User: What shape does this take?
Amino acid sequence: MISRILLALALLLSAASVVFGDYREEFEKGFLTKTWSGEQPAENFCIECHSSDAMKPELLTIAEEWKASWHARHKIACHDCHGGDPKDAALAMSPHRGFVGKPTPAEVPDFCGKCHLGIVKQYWDSGHGKAFRASGKGPNCTTCHGSHNIQKAHIDIINEQLCTKCHTYDRARTMKQALFLTEKKIGELEKEIDRLKSEGVFVDDDAKNLFSIQAEFRTLFHSIDVDLIKNRTDEFSARISALEGRIRNLFRELAYRRNFSAFILLVFAGLGATLYLFSKTPKE
Assistant: This one.
C-alpha cells in the first residue's frame, strides 16, 4: 500500500515538472521574448510597395535590406524612422501622419538621433561631428552603419578598410585596442545570459542591465576620444564584474537545484525499491 502511495507521489511530481515546463515555455514565448518596441503592423504597405514590380529598381533593395537588419529583428519598422501610416496605403506617405521621407545627408545625424540620443550628442561633440557640421562632409551614421541593413553595433565596425576611406587607421586602431577587453567581456556575458534563458532561468533584469551597460559603453565609440575611453574603462569594468558575479551565482544555484532534484528522485526511488522488496519478504 505504501509503495503505491510513493509511486503515485513520484508520478505527480513528474507530471508537475512537465506541466511547469510547458507553462514556462508559453510564458517565455508570450512575455519574456516580447521586444520593448512593440509589434509591427500586420499589414505594412511600405514593405509591400518597396517589394512590388512598380518600384524603381534602385529602391527595390530597401525592403529586403531592412528585413535582414537589427531594426527589423527588434520590430523597428519603416514608420518608426520615416513616419507615415504603414496600415493605410493612401496615408503611408502623408505629412499629416508624420511622414518625413528620406533625410538629406546633413539631416542624418539628428534623424537617427531621435532614438539614439546619447550617441548623437557624443557624435556632434566628436572630431567626426565637428568636421561634418563645419563642412557638410565626413562620416555620419550611415557611413559606418549603412542605411537600412543596419546590424548590431560591434567593435568590428572599427576596421582599417572603413576608417581609411577618410584618414589613416592609426588612431582608430588605438581606440579599438582600448575598447577590446571590455567588449570581449560584454560578449561573453551575453552568451552566458542566453544559456541561462535556455535553461528557463529568469534573467530579464540582468539582460536589461547588460544592455544598459553595453549601450552606455558603445556610446563612447562615437566620441572617438581615446583618453575618455581609457578613463571610463575602470567604471565599466566594475559594473561588468558585479553583473558577472551575479551570473556566476545563478549558474551555481542552477547546478545546486539540479543536484538537489536528482537527490530527491534517488531518495524516492530508493524508498520505493525498499518498500517493494519489503512487501515481497515472506511473512512469518
User: Anything to note?
Assistant: Residues 1-9, 15-38 have pLDDT under 50 and may be disordered. The CA atoms of residues 85 and 91 lie 6 Å apart.
